[in-house]
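Hi there, hope your week has been kind to you so far. It would help a lot if you went through both lines with me. No rush at all, and the record is pasted right below:

***
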Amino acid sequence: MLIEIFSDIVCPWCYIGKRNLDIALDSPAGEGVELIWRPYQLYPNVPPGGIDRLAFLRARFGEASNPDYVPEPIGIEADAVGLRFDFAAMKTTPNTFQAHRLMDFAHQSKHQHALAEVLFRYYFCEGKNVGDLEVLRGAAGEVGLDRAAVVEYLESGAGSEEVRRQLARAQGAGVTGVPCYLLEETFAIPGAQSPDVLVQLISRAKERLATA
């Protein structure tokens, strides 16, 4: 069964959702499941080079914004899956288009899921700018991709149209928030559901598809 994961690298719930999904797929429900990560941009209008995160937050939420504050629900759910977010280290709100291009490139060599983990960690736990070419090159090397090939790919503009097509497809499919999991283009699971809920919904979807 194919599960498409609509996600953005700068979405904390997407990182939590990935960890929950990993737990769910480590059960019998994960048998025969193939994963593809699909792009979604929470902030598509951020400049290509990114924007100062404090300025970004103040523009959205006012001058009293605290960039170091991790909202309690996010902190609790992150702790539950072994994550410790460091919002104080995050100095830049990046444009994630290039990161999505790299994710699309990584799918060809089966490194996509591992790359998602690295990019999330870079941003939420280490404060790295995941819109920066050198940061993306480092992430690619960490999961076993050829760094030189990745730089050549990103600098060429290759894959950009496919990412744009998938971004438009997300809108057409009614994806209005992430994470969102689309099972065999038929069943949608919105939000960072718990592992138990994911197991139930994936198992139920398999049963329905088997009898369709």
